[in-house]
Structures are given as structure tokens and as C-alpha cells.
Amino acid sequence: MPLALFIGRRVAVGVLTVLLVLTAVFFVTALLPGDVATRILGRSPDPGQLAILRQSLGLDLPLLSRFASWFLNMLTGDFGTSLVTGKPVTSIVGSALWNSTLLSIFVLCVYFPLTVGLAVIQAVRVDTKTDTLLSAIALIIQSIPDFLLGTLILLLFAKIIPILPPRSTIDSSSSNLEVLRALVLPGITVALVMGTYATRFLRDSLIDVLNSDYVRMARLNGIGERTVLWRHAFPNALVPVMTVTSLTLTYLFGGVVVVERVFSYPGMGQLLVGSLLQMDIPVIQATVLFAAGVYILGNILVDTLTLYFNPRLRQR
User: Fold this and answer.
1) Where do the domains of the chain lie, and which CATH numbers do they carry?
2) Is the pTM of this model over 0.70?
């Protein structure tokens, strides 16, 4: 299959998925218990004020009419205003999205060297004490829940060895150094959690490639072991790891809720939890939509890179 045709199909499926997510998000939030206007005005609100607020929010309209209006607003990028702060939802989500992007960049800067370095060491020293020790450490890290691992790292570097801030709270007034210091603890936690899985994938893939016939032939032709590893084995072993990397990126933009709560980091996960606790419907809708969009784009990108690096898959 030509690469352009594959990308076109994946984009079409992605657009359809976003539309389905839009529909699901609206009806799920619309069916939540309680009345939004009553939650805003508090208990025992004045009936007149309640009626005016319901009309201003469009809650007096039929459900399908509200959905049509909301759907068109979403397509034009109008996410409304927060029911709690009164600020535009776009600015609230944009700030959290930027923070999650910074965290993602930091994690990837730790994640890739950690994954590649450990996987290569284990692959070239397979079934040795080094391989066994690193595999055991990875298994221990994988068995520790995210919140517990984050808490242990927090205690170590913020309490026992107080070299980093215990809270990773940042805002627009934070300096670059403050932002970097705030990223270290949650970034290391996420990199360890996801890196151990990716290391295992890359290790096993490297071992398979290093034992393949064409690698043996390259060795017989006198090609050096370093060249065999980095030029022949490593690129072919990367394909299975791309799926794990895709999950890592999507995890960072929506699934890293627990880690963000432990370190009080103001990312997308923290925003989603806070808006759910406050029943801030417009923020909930926009956050879920952005998280779904990042997930879909990540999958399209990884699938495209997989086909690019492994042309044999295009023939299937």
C-alpha cells in the first residue's frame, strides 16, 4: 500500500473517531446527575436567577438543539467559558496543554537514552549477570504503582536529599530554572515507569535481530560488531518500540493523572481531575477532546513511521 494512501485512510479514520468522541463527550456530560445552574448558584437559589442562568447557558433548550449548537461551536474552536473561573476554556486548556508538552519533552529526553542504553547493554550481554540484574530492577519498578513510585522519589529528592522542590507547581511567572526544577521529579517518575516497558521490548527485539540470518551474514563478511549493532540491528529493532513510545506520549497528555497529583504538576491530567471534582463541564469536555486528539495523532504518527522504517509492511 502506498504510504500516502495509508496516511489518508488513517487521517479519515481519525477524523471520524474525533467526531464520535465529540458526540460521546457531550451526551455523557449532559447525563451527569445534578443541574449545572444549581451548582453554580449554590443551594436554594433564587428561582428568577436560576431561570435566567439556565437560559444564558442554553439549558432550557431541548437536548438535541443544545447538542447541535455545542457541536458547531466545537468545530469552530469555541469551547466556551469555565463555569468555575469564568475564564475562556481555550486559555485554561492551552496552559495545561503547554505544561504537559514541557513534561513530555523532558520525559523523552530521559526516556530515549535510558531505554536505548539499557536495552543495548542487555542485548549484547544477554543471559549474563548484568542482563539478569537489569531485568530484575525493571521488574521491580514495573510492579510498583505509579503513585507509590512517585511518592518514594519525592521523599528521596525533596525530603531526605532536599535538592528539588516537593511541589512541581508552575505558572506564567515561573522562570526557566524554576520550570526545569519542577519537571525533574515527575519527569523521572514517568520515564522510569514507561522506560522499563520500552527497554524490555527493545531488548527482545534486538536479540531477535542480532540472531537473524542477515546479521550473521554481515558478521561473516567481516563487518565490525559495532557497525552490525547500530547500522543493521538497531534500526530494524526500533519498529516494535514505536508502539510503546506512542503509548508513552498519549499517557503523558491524559493518563499521567496520578503522577501529576503526587507532584501537584498543572498538566492535562491534573486539570481533568480538578474539573471533574468541580463539575466544570466545559473544561471537562475540552480536556477529554484534546486528550483524544493527541491520542489519535500519536497513533497516526507512529503507524506512519512504522511503515516508513519497515517498507515490507506496505505490501500486506
Assistant:
1) 3-75 (no CATH), 90-315 (1.10.3720.10)
2) yes
